[in-house]
Amino acid sequence: MTAPYDLDDNSVVVIIGTGAGGGTLANELAQKGIDVVALEAGGRHLPQDYINDEWPSFSQLAWTDMRTTSGSWRVAKDFANLPAWIVKAVGGSTVHWAGASLRIQDHEFRAKTHYGEVAGASLQDWPLTLKDLEPYYDKAEDKMGVTRTNGIPGLPGNNNFKVMKAGADKLGYKNCHTGRMAINSQPRHDRASCRQLGFCFQGCKMGAKWSTAYTEIPMGEATGHLEVREHAHVLTIEHDAAGKVSGVLYQDKDGNQHVQKARAVCVAGNSIESPRLLLNSASSMFPDGLGNSSGQVGKNYMRHMTGSVYASFEKPVHMYRGTTMAGIITDESKHDPSRGFVGGYEMETLSIGIPFMAAFLNPGGWGREFSATMDSYENLAGMWLVGEDMPQESNAITLSDEKDQFGLAAANVHFDDHPNDIAMRNHAYKQGMAVYDAVGATQTHPTPPYPSTHNLGTNRMSAKASDGVVNKFGQSHDIANLFVSDGSQFTTGAAENPTLTIVTLAIRQADYIAEQMTSKAI
Amino acid sequence: MTVNAGEYTLNFVKTQSGNELVKLTRRQLLQRGLVVGSGLVLGSGFIAGSNAAWALEVKSLTPQTMATLVQMARDIYPHDSFGDDLYAAAVKSHDDTAASDAEFKTMIENGVAQLNSLAKAEGHVDYVSTGWEIDRTNILKSIESEPFFQTIRGGLVVGLYNQPAVWDKLGYEGASFEKGGYLERGFDDIDWL
Ligand SMILES: Cc1cc2nc3c(=O)[nH]c(=O)nc-3n(C[C@H](O)[C@H](O)[C@H](O)COP(=O)(O)OP(=O)(O)OC[C@H]3O[C@@H](n4cnc5c(N)ncnc54)[C@H](O)[C@@H]3O)c2cc1C
Ligand code: SF4
User: Fold this and answer.
1) What are the Cα distances from residue B163, in Å, to A51, B1, B86?
2) Where do the H-state alpha helices sit in B14-101?
3) CA angle A357, A41, A270 (to 5 degrees)
């Protein structure tokens, strides 16, 4: 059959969400001739629509449905209803993302074994290894056009990078370069090369940055085997008397509700919505939510250890000119417990404009110290610190007392830093400030974490059904035709930005789903 | 567009001072107003810069209240290179809100009255004529956890810093796609490292 598909067509695979995971999976399945209906809560915005202006872009793209927060993290105080900064649109958060594309390191897949027992952490080894993923990482890097792979040159360094590089050299760091970025440094795959606009977070108007919105999705649609329904917000997943998932209930733009039947359902709504959807789909057969016999749905929420360092200099830097994430220092991403914590972190350049700087530099802050930093904006350089945070069972997505616009329980996001996270952040702040001090910073500003951009772990994969939600292919331990296809599968967070691995897992999952369909296992 | 981000609401209005503030001649000003301590001119239904470069119509709050909010805005985010017009544009929306929300209006008028009585208690005439920034800042510190202060401060995060005129002052160049990005416009022009 070719798209579009009937609501009653129970031969289709339904994918919920079209971001890094869902968008990639949709294309991969469609390329194999498998019929796919992808339901996306947001609308379709393409490069010509993106806005080079932070707040208007945010209102165009961001997920701002009701959410609540709890826990001791500062975001719960400063942004109580905005725990995460992610996208509601075709393409999901790959519209916003900066493009940093790093492989998870071998030892990070074996966190429990390698780090040992960490009090208060629910560490586990992934049920797969780097070796298992290598062939798929290769495919993902090729698909996304990651610089410094497949013979693709690195991007040129902008001013913000040059400051970082000079500091890194002075400090003796050995691994500092312009990154592995899913941004074209030369035209590739019918997409233009980067013109250093400096608005990567607002959607790349050049289309130079890989996003499923204008790569995977249209490629999948061109096969005739993929139908993407926009403004289709999935409310619950339904199952039959045998306990297999049978379809999904969604609401369209006009407020009408429909049930789309399905042979299999793949959940890819990002790590807050995916577990919420499973929890909100509770039934008399599955009173704790779908796929939740382990009780692990929503648990072990990770957001990466993050923080930023901005530094003021005597002379202009103009950090906002050019790629937002323009370079990286990887020296601290090793596991070296002599630093006082397990796991490691990356240092990556980052720049935000005046509108976001005002909101995120020191939320709630005011007075001369604050405005002096704003006054030195032209002379600022900046970096983002991103490292492995410890999974903790108590950090969780649960159903809130607040309701969303459909009357369904909203997600509550609970987070407390683990002592390891705090020790790592303090180390990272110290090193970040040292990089800038080495090149003459006049002031350094250790800036607190923003609302979460990396949301992970809430439907984690595990070898044993009692330890997690899905197996090593993202298939529910409980329900064979239910899959999780986004970052919520991550067993642990690792130091690296997650999207390359999300895409890699989606490519691998597509092969597995195809096999399972051929063998009639699902 | 408004997004509820929690403790405060981010109001994504673009305040373009040039469009909203009226220009008056100095003569018109002197005819209509009187100069107050902060260097602003207050008239019936408006406040204006003493140099007559701009004026702001005030519909719901009193001109005295508006002038106090302008001073308070400067004290919360003091930028000595910014004219009062940028601060006036940043607090203007409170007058609009007060017009349709009586409870809000009361909170603002009471908040300003409280600032004035705290200033009096320290021996000053009122808040705007308290001479040193540090003295005004201390007054603000004593009420910083109150909804009045948080409303004004929270509103400034977007109201002040989302103005293109402010970006110019702070050296942020804004949208770049129309100009072909920075590839040929200095993305790597740093020369002092
Ligand atoms: C500013 C920013 C910068 C980033 N930079 C990087 C980077 O440099 N490198 C990196 O690796 N990662 C980066 N990330 C993170 C990256 O974007 C995410 O990790 C990745 O996109 C997550 O993929 P996902 O498939 O889990 O979810 P998403 O890509 O967020 O997609 C989820 C989709 O599901 C939809 N959806 C949710 N619920 C429903 C529902 N009930 N019904 C229908 N649709 C639904 C959403 O609307 C959304 O489109 C960044 C993120 C942000 C916000
Ligand atoms: S800097 Fe490059 S990747 Fe970023 S938005 Fe501009 S063209 Fe796109």
Assistant:
1) 16, 15, 8
2) 17-20, 26-32, 63-76, 84-100
3) 60
- Which of A97, A180, A186, A194 maximizes ligand 2 atoms within 8 Å of its Cβ, making it the mutation to test the pocket? A194
* The token pair that represents A411 in the structure block: 């997600």
Q: Is the pLDDT of residue B17 over 50?
A: no
From CA A183, how far away is CA A433, in angstroms rounded?
Answer: 28
- Provide the token pair at B56: 């702001």
Note the ipTM here.
0.91
CA end-to-end distance (rounded Å), chain A: 19
For residue A134, report the distance from its CA to the centre of ligand 1, in Å.
23
Tokens of A126: 């992934």
Is B81 in contact with B169 (CB distance < 8 Å)? yes
List, in sequence order, every beta strand (DSSP E) within A313-425. Answer: 328-329, 345-349, 380-387, 396-403, 409-414
Counting one residue from chain A and one from chain B, the pairs whose CB atoms sit within 8 A come to 154
**What is the H or E stretch that residue A115 is in?**
helix A111-115
The tokens for A252 are 């369209």
Q: Which two tokens stand for residue A26?
A: 């949709």
Of B153, B172, B178, the CB nearest to A320: B172
Q: What is the b/e burial string over B61-93, where b = at least 16 CB atoms within 10 angstroms of the residue's CB?
A: bbbbbbbbbbbbbbbbbbbeebebbbbbbbbbb
The pTM score is 0.95
Burial A70-89 (b: 16+ CB within 10 A, else e): bbebebbebbbbbbbbbbbb
Q: Which residue numbers in chain A have pLDDT < 70? A: none
In 3D space, the residue among A456, A453, A428 whose CA is nearest the CA of residue A346 turns out to be A428
Instruction: List, for residues B19-41, the tens digit of each pLDDT value.
Output: 456 666 666 666 666 655 567 88
User: In the structure encoding, which two tokens stand for residue B6, read together?
Assistant: 């929690």
Residue A19: name the closest of A88, A101, A102 by CA: A88
- Which residue has tokens 């469009």? B19
A384: closest CA among A341, A423, A351, A431? A351
3-state class (DSSP) for residue A168: helix
Strand A409-414 vs strand A245-251: parallel, antiparallel, or unpaired? unpaired
Q: In one letter, which amino acid is A505? A: L
Is the CB–ligand 1 distance for residue A457 below 6 Å? no
B59 CB contacts (<8 Å, ≥6 apart)? B45, B95, B96, B99
- 3-state SS class at A401: strand
Ramachandran sector of residue A330 (left: φ over 0; alpha: ψ -120 to 50; beta: rest): alpha
Among the listed residues A199, A200, A211, the one whose alpha carbon sits nearest the alpha carbon of residue A52 = A199
Average pLDDT, chain A: 97
Mutate to test the interface with A, among B16, B177, B184, B189 (most CBs of A within 10 A): B177
